[in-house]
Amino acid sequence: MTTTTSHFSATSHCSSVSKFVDFGSGSGGKWRSNLLLIRTLRSRSLTRSFSVKNVSGEPKTKLKNPISDGDASSIASSIKYHAEFTPVFSPEKFELPKAFVATAQSVRDALIINWNATYECYDRLNLKQAYYLSMEFLQGRALLNAIGNLELTGAYAEALTKLGHDLESVARHEPDAALGNGGLGRLASCFLDSMATLNYPAWGYGLRYKYGLFKQRIAKDGQEEVAEDWLEMGNPWEIVRNDISYPVKFYGKVVSGSDGKKHWIGGEDIIAVAYDLPIPGYKTKSTINLRLWSTKAPAEDLDLYAFNAGKHTKAYEALANAEKICYILYPGDDSLEGKILRLKQQYTLCSASLQDIIARFERRSGSKIRWQEFPDKVAVQMNDTHPTLCIPELMRILMDLKGLSWNEAWNITQRTTAYTNHTVLPEALEKWSLDLMQKLLPRHVEIIEMIDEELVNFIVCKYGKADPNIFEKKLKEMRILENVDLPSTFAGLTLKPKESSAAAISEASKLNVKDEVDSGDEPQSKGEPKSKGTQKKEEVMAEPPPKLVRMANLCVVGGHAVNGVAEIHSEIVKDEVFNAFYELWPNKFQNKTNGVTPRRWIRFCNPDLSKIITEWTGSEEWVLNTEKLAELRKFADNEDFQTQWRAAKKSNKMKVASLLKEKTGYSVSADAMFDIQVKRIHEYKRQLLNILGIVYRYKKMKEMSAVERKAKYVPRVCIFGGKAFATYAQAKRIVKFITDVGATVNHDPEIGDLLKVVFVPDYNVSVAELLIPASELSQHISTAGMEASGTSNMKFAMNGCILIGTLDGANVEIRQEVGEDNFFLFGAKAHEIAGLRKERVMGKFVPDPRFEEVKDFVRTGVFGCKYDEMLGSLEGNEGFGCGDYFLVGKDFPSYIECQEKVDEAYQDQRRWTNMSIMNTAGSYKFSSDRTIHEYAKDIWNIRPTILP
After folding, report:
1. Is the pLDDT of residue 770 over 90?
2. To pair with 233 at 20 to 30 A between CA atoms, which of 244, 546, 625, 754?
């Protein structure tokens, strides 16, 4: 086969170029200077090249990286070049926003070369590739992470100094990418970092949200939401691929063609366009891709006749309907329109991504496409149930468009897809209205019905007709379609359905979109507790329960692997959530404890601590091999080591004190203990338990003399952060309560610096990168059995923070690794929760007097109002919105007693520092590198590929 070698010239930004660019000069002579610059750039030889071979095995391109050698003068010239020739700001000034964009574009130059070479290599070798589909990617700022991974931090800092700026100030002008909200999105981003660093052929797929979730403001009445503006100044990292777009259809109808195939016709058509973001690995050339879809309608969908007739809204309707799909992350779903929009988002992600994956498979296959080899080349990981529609969509494409039979398509689909579960409670799993899905995705409902029928047939074969009660139970637990009659083929096999109770109907009606408890998804709005009279009326007026599609069941049936995200969570998945499936297919279920990238969460966000770790372990090997962190244990009592460790923590605390002053106006002492709880505001995460504990502490302080309180209590700064979903009334009440408590406590002259309560508005990754290194105590106090994993607990432990928490999620494994003496444990255990709730329903719960005392104190109005609705959730024995479902009252006495142990330990700083060191040393197992290795080996069956 004849081959050719193509030579490309890339921009060289050597120091001599800088003389041609003058940011302060006028326009005279600039045109001639620009021509000279362009000629210079074209003629320069490039540095540090590597070659990529084409299919024949011979070199195809020889590319060189103009800044990879780390010469500060070359980097400065590169930044100036972009400020001059790829501007998004006016030319007169070189201020910080412009400096950031130009710097980011300079870094992107280096990434593009590695980026293109990475995928040219993957194409040439026709590797099996993993594709990670997620509704969220909580990336955070990219600049410092990118130059850190490229080992160019020092060079860029020097280059920006030459240009009159410092790197830290420039980096602060990057907005956080508003592509996620909670742990689900941050986990996905950590995984991408590890995939690239470990050289795995993989990339991510998501949606390009124009306005994110929302920007949180804290006002007198609590949380206010405004649209995110992260894209208003453009995104210098992304590249729009106008040549990569796919049609996505909604509504319409399904018809059978003369060829016997099904055809989905009519309806609403939109276009999904690819926007790509480079994800660089650490100390490697591998740069993988995060492909985000943005939606639009064809230009011809603008109704010019209506527009010219003055009916502008009607004329633009089709375009607006397409564009709004990618406006907001988790749009409110109280209305039918909101539910439709959420389902459109999920299908857009699945359809566009699968079309793209299949196009890549066909291109790499060349003229000989063997569909049976598709699972040998493609692994699709569904991060939670949002991408569940991948299963019927892949079936649709393979059968309707590629001509495969049902059995062929089903075999391929099951071998290709896998599912990560982030939810431990059956009632929290995502469900969709069958009627809504039938209207929006008619062909997919046909396929889902066929999958459900196959499943029923399997259950019949497995359990037969010997025991109708067992058979009925298995159908109820396992079917994909809920409250739907069996296909006519199986008529007469089940018992006569019983009358549905009003309670069951009420519960079912709440579940058409899930109230997720771990993955970062947002709950539907929480209504107020209903009166008994209203419930009685509903019982009389009860309608049949809604017909639903159970997305998690579809994931389990349609994929080849199901994994939980912590050991305790995976056991609950097998024993409770999907027990019926586990009994049938035990080998399908796995555990993959989550992890976090040590690059972003120690190396880059905590440079002071990183230097100490490197010095005492002898190298930076720990950044890629976190097992080296375990070596810190032997220095835990070393006086010099402890002194350095405390100094690093103090330095980070001073940074946070400045942040709190800037964001909230409150002044705090860096000598106080920094006690932090930052995560989504949700009842199961129990921020309410934390703040009630603080209120109890404050009340007891007020009852003491100044001398007594100073002797008894360690000074604390209690920091909260996180967003409450816009329609989640109880969560928003908790936010307001926290801020009201802070307003009272922080202005109390008797208390002074002994206690401060601060809520940091608009918590995001960048704020976390400051708070986590400064933390000394971190609260992970969810009701046991409800947090699937958590990953912030891992980040805090890595940074030498001691955890107070329940035995829930990854807390269990963290406690095992750091040592029981270095973890503050309280609260009921997961296996006790069901019994405790049952006792409550039976009226047997006797509240601790201290719990009643703190509630009575709040009701005096000391914090501005009496909070009857919020406290009402803790009252009664049962009912929606009351009965203390999350067991705040049960765990309250254990919690405040544990906090007394925290105070005692903190007063002995040698002991506390030892505990802090042991937490970092014991966090070595919680790197996302380990997690990705396990996914690659056990689920995806892919291998690392190192670029030449």
Report:
1. yes
2. 244
